[in-house]
Amino acid sequence: MNLDLTVTTGELASAASALVRLVPGKLIDPVLSGLLLTADGAGVSLAANDRERAARLERPAVVHTEGRVLVPAKPFADTLRALDHEQVRLVVEGSKLAIRAPGARYALPLLDVDVHPGVAAPPAAAGTVDGQMFASALTTVAAAASRDDALPMFTGVRIRSEGDRLVMLATDRYQMAVAALAWRPTDAPVDALVPASLLTEIAKQVEGPVALHADRDRFGLVWQRAGGTTVATTAVLDGSFLHESKVSVSDVDTSVEVDADVLAGSVRRVGLYTDARGVMLLEVGDGELRLRGADQRSGEAEETLKADVSGGRTSHAYQGRFLTDALRAFSGARVRVEIQPGMRATVFSAVGESDLDLRYVVMPMLPPKH
Tell me, which fold does domain 125-245 have in CATH? Predict the structure, then answer.
């Protein structure tokens, strides 16, 4: 095995760290926790594959000797991130890959590159979407997915196309986020349930236009940045049953418009005085909202906010963290809260038109006992 190249430290460090976050690796298998380095005339590419997720990033480099090696991913990324030298040289020395900088040498063991699965090309391209808006939608929607791996169908984000609109949905059964934005389809429709944990990380990394790739078994995203191309793919989950129509929102009898940040502040403060479930009362009156929290040990709290109210008076209980998640999506703007009678869903949406159509659905809870 041979490889010898010189590269900007910061560029390589950011790429290695991004790859580790996209593909954390399988701790029980060193090969599937490895980082595949390939040096050729185009520069250097970094890749990883744990047989469920795969990613590849390209960065410019001065290549002295072309080659391909596999090294432990996390130590490689951690070492580069700790260096303050402008450039580093990577060179194979016997059974190790040496990271060389003036006055310093670090050597990582070479893993068996021949048994690594590599990174296959993504599925066929299905369309493109604005990266900034896509990232904004992903950040909100993915937060509504479950973290409980015992119910894998609720740990993903369903991404589907409807003509020139791309719809994203996630739920943990107690809250649901739905976002729709414009996109440019180029091929067959998209409908895939994608792990939310991967999409959360992708939302932090995407730049510029993002191309979506999909087939029956895999979903992929491709985007460009100054240093090159990033490709991330994943096996899809089974969750075509997830659809916003499963939650009825047709019986709204009270609608409230209020500053999202003001309400979020009240939720945060009143939440200090809630029971072990974190449940508080939201009461709607004439031109006002009132939040109440009470706990035998902590005491009680009450805040009243001015609001534009349509419909009758009502009172519902909600878990504070779900209200916080919903309001965070509308930070800096006014939010419309549409309340249905009984234990039916409450819908949060933006007041006014926006390029991103976002709705956040929260299920009410049983009121706290006093």
Answer: DNA Polymerase III; Chain A, domain 2 (3.10.150)
